[in-house]
Structure formats: structure tokens, C-alpha cells
Amino acid sequence: MNRAMPRLRALTALPFVLVLAAHLLVLALVHDRLPDPLATHFDGGGRANGFTSATAFTVISTVLLLTLGAGWTVLVRRTALWGAWATAGFTGTLLVLLVRDNLDATDPAGVSSPLVNLTLAVAVGGLFAAAGLALTRLVPPEDAEPVDPDGPRLALGASEVAGWTRATGSRPLTVLAVLALVAAPAVLLLAPWPGALLGLLGLVIGVPGLALARIRVTVDRRGLTVSPALGSRPRIRVPLDEVAGADVRDVSAVADFGGWGYRVRAHRTGVVLRSGEALVVRRAGGREFAVTVPDARTGAALLNTLAERHGKV
Asked: Taking Cα atoms as reference points, which of 296, 305, 288, 295 lies closest to residue 238?
């Protein structure tokens, strides 16, 4: 694991700890001025149409902040620290403003939430994002493990032609993508605004998630190609003239790439469906591309051989 990771995770958890402490302090100071239940859901005009008991609201809001904080802390990468801070600031501001709207209300049904609340939450989220971006300098850039220049080779005659291909997939990603796509239309049609936005989020998660759930990795005269197993698009290709070397490496989806799917890090990108064996290519510009796939050593060996042959042509 990157030696800077503990510091990065501490800085990621910090805004959620601060926001949760502030939220609970506000609730403790004004609990006797809040109705029970509280108005917690509003229609497009800002009128209350959903209610939650004070106790349940405290528990749900606490769990929400803890869950968001834990998720960001586990999956964060250095270049996304600002996103964790923005999420904490935006969510915490919405919760505090909701408490403010309920203050001294005699009838929760009469509580309203003005649209300006969303504007204020976005503004505070922006300020938090700026703070997170500034704190990024406290985390040293991660150093990628170098690809072995003397990586594996596949014996291939001057006139021989060879290719290698393997399909691999992720069952959890498949299930998540299918559930998101199935739920998205129902949420879009049935949920009141702004809850319908969750339906759009389902499409955003489901479509690329399904495309990446099962992939085919191919090494041939065109270089390295990664594409959906059920189609040819979208695809990622590293041509032979961009291959500076290929090797095999054990990777951790969370520690090395911050999660699963198509990942972008400071000095490398990757298609990561699991932890374990990965084919890692060092490109001519110095960046790396990794894809988790079984039998990665054969793919790396053939790619090295084909790249060397291509360079001699």
C-alpha cells in the first residue's frame, strides 16, 4: 500500500467527522424547538409532503454521513480528495438547513424548504471542495511500481503469427448494473421530484457498469485491446508502437486503484474487475495501463514479443 494512504484516508474522513459533529451539536441545542415528526421531504414547490420522527431523523442522518464518509475513505484517491470534502459540505449543509426550516413549527405540514437551500448547499460544497483541493498538497503523489523492462517473452519465429484473448468478468458488478437498470425506470416514473434524480443516477451507474461487467482482453498485431465481451464498443486500445513494456502484477482494486471499473489514477489507468493478477503495460509516454485478467503472463509475454518485432520493422 502507498505509504501516503493513511494520511489520505485521515484527510478524507476529517470533513465527515466535522460535519457530523456540527450536525449533532445543532440537534442537541435546538431539540426542544423541533416538532415531532419533522418535515423531511418536499415537493417541487418546496411544500412538505413527507415526515420523519425526530429520533429516526437523528439516526438516519447520522448513518448517512457515516456511510458516505466510510465509502469515500475506503475508495478515495489523491486526485479526488476534493470530492470527499465537497460531498461532506453539501450533505451537511442540507441537513442543517432542514433542521432550521423545522424550527418552532407547530404543524410540520406547514413547513417549507425554499430552493435557495440547494443554492446554499452547493456554495458550501464548493468551499469545502476548495479546502480539500488545498489539502491535497499534504499527500505525496503515489509512485507506481515500475514495469520490468525484462518482462516475460514468448518465443515466436520471424514468420509466425500469434494472438491471445481471454474473457473475464465480475459477478458483483453485473448484479449491481442489472439492479440499477431495472430500478431506474420505476424510480423515474414513480418517485416525486427530486427523488427521480436517483433514477437518472441508476442509468449513469447501470449502463457503463453493464458494459464493463464482462470484458475481453486481446493481444495481437494491433496491440492490446480491451472491449466489452458482448460488443466491440466502447473499447480501449494500446497500439504496439505505444508499448514500452508489459509485465504481470498483483493489484488491489481498492488500495491501488480506489475501486472497481474503469479507474484513473495519477500515473496510470486501468480496467479493474477484481483484485489479483493484472496485465500492466507501460506506455511510451510513461503512463501505465492495467487490466485484471487470468493468464496475464501469457498476454504480457506475447505483447512484449510483438512490440519488439514491430519496433524492428
From this structure: 288
